[in-house]
């Protein structure tokens, strides 16, 4: 395995050792600024999310808070108006008895409220109302699927759900409604939809009516404790039924506190466009962290096709996304730049070369001469973006480095899981090296634990390349384990899965394989949970292979699968449209895109590309496959991705069952 040698100053470090290594694991490490005590609260007096919001609403009362797109622009409510509506809403829920109390698991007393809809102002106001009145929010979302939604309804026994018009269709597809009986509608429904819902036994309420009811009968706020369950956040999961992570107020407050001391440096002048799914902790943490500092949050119109227009209207100062979307921006920008010719092209090439050099040696993002070349790219993100953030999955170094120099601002990489309240690691502005996690958050300590079946240990020896010379380097590699106030308390009604995730010492076992970098940060190199065996008894890590296949020329996406009765893996490849069209022209092959995906010459070209690139990246013979199917549809369109755009392997296996079967038949023939 190769290891990049950095030019970072030895005084720059992400973490430091706080406890010696034990057998089979690395030392325990913490953020260099929080070695003695992990950060639990952002300031004195803020012990829960109720404290946090009330303090913010008082301090920033007249400032713009939450904005919806109305007419031709965003219209904002102030912090004071948001607080007022949240109090009315929470009071209305209480007086009408819409939040049922459950006490069915480990003495957790919770009053549950469901919510089902895309990001919108009412969604966040409901979240705040729940915070003020001690209700526990259970978010739903489309990619859970028709089987998972009733599973959650049955596990939680929710009686009331707030939902948007488009979410009603997903609800109607569910065969079982369990105890769900009250639907509070964010939107006006058609008469037909209302009739269908009533025929299923639902009682319908209007959001506005609940607010008006509360306005006439304002109720006192609830007493909230740090251990109060803030939310049950169901992971869409890459295998099997979703798991409901129990996240407390203390968990989330510590995550907000840690966000404040990252290099994001968010403040009251920041503007954020909320479009990543709010049911997931990443976007929820960003929103609550921004509310804490008095920033503005606008909500997209719910249509991905209008996202670019929404960005241009709001002109965010912070842009948060995930690698799949950044890859689309990257591909589009590069395609436009490929059209530049002559002197302009020479100047553009020089600008890219110079800025990349400065970025990778000194972490410099701007240049007084060359920044003008990228003005069009900056305008894609509204023209005043000072910071970008990426999370949810690893991002390729060439993509993130190019976007840093093109948008002329830092892009911080973050890592966290639902079970760790979204933030466990983040990179720093001073770091010129991309495509890693950075160091531990202020509320987190970590260690790596041996995974002997994958040949990863805390005392590995790897080869690094310095010019033409090779050197042996001792390095720690293993499963990333996290501990601290941000780590959840367990899965709802699932002690077995809880015991698998949390050990007796409180360590969360993430399933991600990492290595400790020279600066005390962590880089993900593999995934433990998704490994499988082939018939030879060899372990295969599909995510590692996919990360390499996705960088092969012409490949947009990939799904790698292996059957334990077979001796080869198979790969479903989603090709890039422009690449296929270009190659077809060069080969003088006629046909539409779907037809070209089935052409044997095109398939052979992809096999050659994968083999060549795989060998360059040290894939072994079992990891380089000749069994390839070219799929013209994006995996997202086929329902194979979660709402955070992660591959759902059990779904992909079902979707491509016939293609997988046919590929293995080819092997036999």
TrEMBL record:
Keywords: ATP-binding, Nucleotide-binding. This is AMP-dependent synthetase/ligase domain-containing protein. GO terms for cellular component: endoplasmic reticulum; membrane. It comes from the Eukaryota. The keyword Nucleotide-binding applies. Residues 59-492 form the AMP-dependent synthetase/ligase domain. InterPro entries: AMP-binding_CS, AMP-dep_synth/lig_dom. GO terms for molecular function: ATP binding; long-chain fatty acid-CoA ligase activity. The lineage of its organism: Eukaryota, Sar, Alveolata, Ciliophora, Intramacronucleata. It comes from Paramecium pentaurelia.
């Amino acid at each position: 395995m190769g290891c990049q040698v950095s030019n970072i100053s030895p005084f720059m470090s992400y973490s430091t050792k706080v406890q010696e290594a034990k057998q089979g694991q690395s030392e325990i490490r913490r953020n260099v600024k929080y070695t003695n005590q992990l950060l639990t609260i952002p300031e004195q007096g803020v012990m829960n999310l109720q404290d946090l919001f009330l303090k913010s609403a008082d301090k920033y009362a007249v400032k713009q808070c939450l904005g919806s797109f109305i007419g031709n622009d965003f219209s904002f409510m102030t912090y004071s108006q948001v607080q007022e509506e949240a109090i009315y809403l929470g009071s209305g829920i209480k007086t009408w008895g819409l939040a049922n109390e459950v006490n069915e698991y480990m003495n957790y007393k919770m009053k549950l409220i469901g919510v089902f809809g895309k990001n919108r102002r009412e969604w966040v106001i409901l979240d705040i109302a729940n915070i003020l009145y001690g209700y526990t929010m259970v978010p739903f979302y489309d990619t859970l699927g028709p089987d998972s939604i009733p599973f959650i309804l049955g596990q939680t026994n929710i009686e009331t759900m707030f939902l948007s018009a488009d979410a009603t269709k997903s609800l109607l597809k569910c065969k079982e409604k369990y105890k769900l009986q009250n639907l509070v509608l964010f939107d006006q429904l058609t008469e037909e939809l209302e009739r269908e819902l009533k025929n299923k036994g639902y009682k319908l309420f209007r959001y506005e009516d609940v607010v008006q009811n509360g306005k006439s009968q304002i109720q006192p706020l609830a007493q909230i404790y740090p251990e109060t369950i803030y939310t049950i956040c169901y992971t869409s999961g890459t295998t099997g039924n979703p798991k409901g992570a129990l996240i407390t107020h203390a968990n989330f407050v510590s995550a907000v506190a840690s966000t404040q001391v990252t290099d994001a440096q968010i403040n009251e002048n920041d503007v954020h466009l909320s479009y990543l799914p709010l049911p997931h902790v990443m976007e929820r943490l960003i929103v609550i962290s921004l509310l804490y500092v008095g920033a503005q949050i606008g909500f997209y119109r719910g249509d991905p096709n209008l996202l670019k227009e929404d960005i241009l209207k709001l002109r965010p100062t912070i842009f948060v996304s995930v690698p799949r979307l950044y890859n689309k921006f990257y591909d589009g920008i590069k395609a436009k730049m490929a059209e530049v010719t002559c002197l302009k092209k020479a100047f553009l090439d020089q600008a890219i070369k110079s800025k990349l050099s400065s970025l990778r040696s000194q972490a410099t993002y701007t240049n007084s001469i060359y920044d003008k070349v990228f003005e069009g790219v900056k305008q894609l993100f509204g023209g005043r973006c000072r910071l970008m953030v990426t999370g949810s999955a690893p991002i390729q170094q060439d993509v993130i480095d190019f976007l840093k120099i093109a948008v002329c601002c830092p892009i911080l990489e973050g890592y966290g899981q639902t079970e760790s309240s979204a933030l466990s690691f983040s990179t720093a502005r001073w770091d010129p090296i991309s495509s890693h996690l950075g160091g531990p958050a202020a509320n987190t300590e970590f260690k790596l634990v041996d995974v002997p079946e994958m040949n990863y240990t805390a005392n590995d020896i790897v080869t690094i390349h310095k010019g033409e010379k090779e050197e042996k380097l001792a390095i720690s590699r293993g499963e990333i384990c996290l501990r601290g106030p941000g780590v959840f308390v367990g899965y709802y009604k699932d002690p077995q899965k809880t015991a698998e995730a949390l050990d007796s010492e409180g360590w969360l076992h993430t399933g991600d394989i990492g290595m400790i970098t020279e600066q005390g940060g962590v880089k993900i190199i593999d995934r433990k949970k998704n490994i499988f065996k082939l018939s030879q008894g060899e372990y295969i890590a599909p995510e590692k292979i996919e990360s390499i296949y996705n960088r092969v020329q012409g490949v947009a996406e990939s799904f790698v699968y292996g059957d334990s009765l077979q001796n080869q893996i198979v790969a479903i490849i989603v090709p890039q449209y422009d690449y296929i069209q270009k190659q077809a022209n060069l080969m003088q092959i006629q046909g539409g895109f779907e037809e070209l995906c089935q052409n044997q010459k095109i398939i052979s070209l992809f096999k050659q590309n994968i083999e060549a690139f795989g060998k360059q990246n040290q894939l072994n013979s079992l990891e380089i496959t000749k069994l390839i199917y070219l799929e013209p549809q994006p995996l997202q369109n086929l329902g194979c991705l979660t709402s955070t755009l992660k591959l759902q392997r059990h779904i992909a296996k079902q979707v491509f069952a016939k293609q997988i079967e046919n590929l293995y038949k080819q092997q036999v023939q």
